[in-house]
Amino acid sequence: MTLSEITTPYEQKRMYHYLKDGNTVKLSSTRVKLIRKPYYMSEPKTDEYGNTYADIYVWYPNPDCGMKLMNLRTDTEVEKLCAYNDDAYETPEKFTRTVTELTYPRMLEIFLVNEINPDLVPFLMKKRELYLEAKSAIESEQRRTQERIDMEFVSEQNEILKSTVEKAVEILKHDGILKNETITEYRNRYDFSEYKLINYIARKYGVKIPLKTQGWINSTLAEIKIENGEMTTYKRMSNTNPSNSIWKYMGELIKKVREEN
Length: 261
Fold this sequence. Notes:
The protein is α+β, with helices and mostly antiparallel strands. It is built from 7 helices and 11 strands.
């Protein structure tokens, strides 16, 4: 028999459940029908994909309340549900034993334990406290480790940037072929900017290249060739329109770099 085949009448039972915030526990009268003691199910609901689900509850006559246990498809076999959960929830005594053995008892479970055996609540709250303290310590250490890894990554990447720029400056100073590769400057692991090398160096040396020409350098310029302190040729990445102004601004850049002490 599946959950969808349960025909027992609906009745009102006092049940603990979480509100939508996932933290606040509320006790309310809930419309459910008996599956097999101590399991009850809510009215089924069908999602947008055509799957039908019901909330599953445990309820005990003493202390006349229960709690939401899970959400299951209504084609779930009743015997499977019971066989899987009986050892943990079949009686109030099994329920309290199960909760006390948890590493991290939820507040939902603690509220129901409070109805069954209030003397266990301080023990359960202490378990929660110790778990959360340990979890916080682990998370803090993980954050510190990740921060260290991120800092090392940023340092390594910016060293690569520094080395690339230094090599490019040497070419500008002493002639050669300067490839207009893409470089990346990191402010932190997740905050970075990409530039074309020639535009980056031009800004570094205060050469004010118009935005239109900067765009052409970004999209088209592949490399420049410097001989005897002058740009003699350049290559484009695609068969697009050449630039006349590039000669002027590369001349300014080479001049500024070579004037540097």
